[in-house]
Amino acid sequence: MAISSPTPPPTLPHSWTRWLGANERETRAFVDGLAQRLRLTPEQRPLWDRFVEKLRRSGSAAALPDPGEGWDHGQSAALDNLLRLEIAAGRFLGAIEEARDDFGRVYAILSPVQRSLVDAAISKR
Fold first, then answer.
1. Is the whole model's pTM more than 0.70, yes or no?
2. Which of 54, 48, 53 is nearest to 91 (CA)?
3. From CA 115, how far away is CA 82, in angstroms rounded?
4. Is 22 part of a structural domain of the chain?
5. In sequence order, which residues have a C-beta less than 8 Å from that of residue 54 and are 6 or more positions away?
6. 111: in domain
7. Which segments of the chain does DSSP mark as H helices, in order?
8. What is the domain range of residue 86?
């Protein structure tokens, strides 16, 4: 009897991993390149920069908390590790929600041409 491989978990489209800081250098190049193609106005730039900073911080928000001294919550090591993962996931979700809100503010003031550039860049897989 052959053992089948489990279905791989869903992953984010490649362009979103760049946005989310999977590789700081690649993320910066992607975001800076997109900003240049958008030719942001002085009104748009501060909102764009705020959005980009939130995205950058979302990557560090996903880091597991250091167990450090006194981390033992009286649970098994496995349960403690799951708790740490839950905390990191909650921080990451909060950071992404903030970034999404900032992105909405930026997107609202983009021209139709700028919106099409952003949509095309993010929809690439």
1. no
2. 54
3. 40
4. yes
5. 95, 98, 99, 102
6. yes
7. 14-19, 24-38, 44-61, 77-108, 112-123
8. 15-64+75-123
Whole-number Å distance between alpha carbons of 63 and 119: 28
How does pLDDT run across 13-49, given as a tens digit for each residue?
A: 444 454 555 567 777 788 888 999 999 999 999 999 9
Angle among Cα 17, 18, 20 to the nearest 5 degrees reads 65
Nearest in space to 67 (alpha carbons), one of 80, 86, 51, 49:
80
Q: Which of 103, 13, 5 is nearest to 58 (CA)?
A: 103
* The two three-digit tokens of residue 81, written as one number: 């590790």
The residues, ordered by sequence, that sit 6+ positions from 83 with a Cβ below 8 Å of its Cβ are 73, 75
Structural domains of the chain, count: 1
Contact 27, 19 (CB under 8 A): yes
